[in-house]
Write a structure and sequence with these properties.
Blueprint: H1 3-17, H2 22-27, E1 32-38, E2 44-50, H3 53-60, H4 65-82, E3 88-94, H5 113-126, H6 150-161, E4 170-173, H7 180-194, E5 200-204, H8 205-218, H9 220-231, E6 235-239, H10 248-263, E7 267-272, H11 284-290, E8 294-297, H12 303-316, H13 323-332, H14 337-353, H15 360-369, H16 380-391, H17 395-399, H18 405-421, H19 426-432, H20 438-454, H21 456-471
Parallel strand pairs: 2-3, 4-7, 4-8, 5-6, 6-7
Antiparallel strand pairs: 1-2
Length: 472
Amino acid sequence: MDPIQLWNAIKEELRQTISQGFSYTNYVDTLKPLQLVENENNTVTLQLTTAYEQVASEWLNASSSYYQAFMQAAMTATLKLTGQPTFIIPSVTYVSPTPTTLFDLPEDQDKDEEKEQQQSKDSLASEFVTQSILNPEFRFETFVSSDENREAYAVAQAVADKPGTQWNPLLIYGGVGLGKTHLMQAIGNKVLERTPDANVKFITTEDFINDFTEALRRGQKETEAFKREYRSTDLLMVDDVQFLAGKEKIQEEFFNTFNAITRENHQIVLTSDKLPKEIPGLEMRLVTRFGQGYSANITKPDLPTRVAILRNKSDLENLSIPNDVIDEIAAAVDTNVRDLEGVFNQVVGKMRFSNVPITVETARTILEAMNFKRQRAITIPIIQEAVAKFFNVTVQDLNGKKRNKEIVVPRQIAMYIARELTQDSLPQIGRSFGGKDHTTVMHSTEKIENAIENDSILAEQVQKIREELSNG
């Protein structure tokens, strides 16, 4: 079977299932067929190449929507081509593009020499600076927001509507897999939808570090090209800025880049796993800069939101998944959205490539294989009761204003565990402890966190309470 003919047939099938425009153009049409390789297990691998690292990374994920769509499209395409459906596995490899030089361009004797030199300068950055590709699926319409995350969602929309005005920079912070990158890229996709020629750049902090390091290695011209590339953006989005910590030279360059962009009233959006002031090794001048705009917290989705996320994905993929199956998954996976979608993709794969009907029992088998099981919801009142019982005090004591050590330490431990085991925000936790301020909660949790490192007795007490809560 000819790999080019096969790929063209698969592309035609994918064209029917993957949305046209940015998604199909960037994640399918940019792929080039290389060869077919027969595997020992009677399957065939179609090797493809791409000039975009992020595209290759997306295709490496066997749970991604592109990978899953390919498998189904390949079965249909081979059936049409040969009369026999064949199990084709995609293998996409990133191949660095060869830079286009001026000699490859048509000669134009009237071209201005100064313009030619400037174009040559501008092309230097494209040789080593990371390509910026947004995930077209990361839109506001596909982000399911819980009550606690509505503030972050609303601010992100405001930034997308009027970038570079009031909320600059916008910092979105929270734990792993909660949707920070989704919300940030939704801003970029919205800006490009409204202004297609806007200079929008999305990178990870690691990309920034690698690009700057490579520019320094190459020399002065490339360093200047790096600065032009980054400082001329209309919207710069940087993922995981906590990884700037401890890197003095990189922080200095990022500080200068930040100032250059905001000075032109252009927008910066950042994500982090915590507030800047809580990141050790981050220079105070960056802490100050990052805090001068708006910091929006994203927390773990509650049960109703998890159910809504799964139903939304089911509708988007035009699937009919029973409600009791969705409820089972949502109840078991309370860690983050990424894990939730991972289990969902396994269920979808089972639906598409197996004749076994999807039931609650099927879902439980998949959940157990991925180390998830339905758990009792741990709430602040449950935590308060467990802590009060452990220290022989009352819940009223924990919620009251007594300041003696016998009450203060259990209260701080209860706040610490509440922040650790629930998705409630700092203000919510404070209100649950007799109307305490969120700064009191932050102080209490930090104090216990630091004390645990040096006090083995306290660490053992906290662990015993955790075990009591998990055992129900």
